Protein 1
Amino acid sequence: MSWSGYVDNLMGGGQVQDAAIVGHTDSPSVWAATPGGIFSKITVTEINAVVSGDREKLFVNGLVLGGQKCSVLRDEFSVADNQVMDLRTKNPNGPTYNISICKTAKALVLVMGNAEVHGGCLNKKVFDMGKYLRCAGY
């Protein structure tokens, strides 16, 4: 299955600067990502941290995605009908961006918004894609 079309779909509309579909079971890896984006550089260690069972630690320490440090704003991975996490990049010397992640049984759907794009817009994008993938068995 080619996942690049899913990434193209997430990038549509001009709100998103980076997107990826990442597998988190069996052999965690990036299935497809925006070329040159930070999500294309996500490591197995970073994937495992996103889906870790120790959820409180995420609020204290944050996450790293593709080498980019992020603060966790909201974590609803344990909410059955939602399974979305909202983050914000950390950058003391420049702009920061909203990130949303949706978890399915096998995949993570990630998007990073352009400057000034509200997290709610991103949240809906990953939620809708995650819902579609769940219905397709992912």
Note: DSSP finds four helices and seven strands in the chain.
Protein 2
Amino acid sequence: MKLDRFVILAVALCALFLFSLPALSQTFRMNHQMPATAVSSAVDRWFVDEVAKRTGGDVDIQIFWSEGLGKTTETLSLLKNDAIDMAGLSPGYFPGQLPLFTAPNSFPMAIDNVCQANRLIDRLLTEVPGFQKEAAANGIKPLFFHVLNPYYLVSKQPITTLEQMVGVRMRTWGAHMPRMVQAAGGTAVTLGLSEIYEGFSRGVIDAAPFSVDLVETYNIYEVAKHVTEVTLWDGPTWGVWMTQSAWESLSPDHQAVVMEVAAEAQARDLAVVRQAAENARQTLKEKGVTFHHFDAADLRTWQNRLPDFFSEWIEQMEVDGKGDAARQAVAIWREVVDTVECPA
């Protein structure tokens, strides 16, 4: 009997000791597709610092910028195989595995401004279960997304009408942007982001969709002095993702902190991006860049020539068993575009 009481007391003391121990700190490695100098990269630095601060240092996230842990095109595989814990990654690189997430990152002339892009991705993640299911099927969890400023028509010569678009060689990407250029009588040229400057300087392209802050960042103003303020593309871009296994290793309290900070980071990103556009616009004017407006009637004609990207996408998603999610997404998308404007 005395032995039994001793064993019970020993177990109780051990349990008390274990529960009184501080939580072990966890370190998570994030592969990032962007350089540390990008405008929104500062938001990701704030995110990891704030998570560490609010968890008392228990959750430490280390960012490896500019593909420091692997090529962007390899990152989803690295996440799925738990070779890395987190990533700053655009879903547009993986249309086969992430077709729902890819759509807002791909369709031209489908979003007017960054505020719509921010609201859209937020609502899709919270209101369309198919998005979370798609992520889970790939072993990942989205935490928050960045947005980019509108991609305007940046060119070597002024382009303000459809007639001036005929024969223009424009940098594009993906499957949808080339069709937008072709609808205006232009020629689509596929180039990577880092190839735009050289493409202009060597005469490979005459124009490119690009945001004003990226025109400044990549020094495009040196080789293309005209910006026509017609939104050729806008939308959410890279997301910050965590593997399911890394997420499940966090305590419920730490999970709550991560999501709280993620929501704040997404709001912060919108403010940072809008300010970057305002600053860049002034800088570009000082560098000799001229801003133009596109003819309104010609813009409507151009838009009417575009394929019905939404219907095509829903049809494709039906084949994948994701038709309901796509229809939900399109309904939300249309509502956001009709109702959301950026405050002055």
Note: The two ends are 78 Å apart (CA to CA).
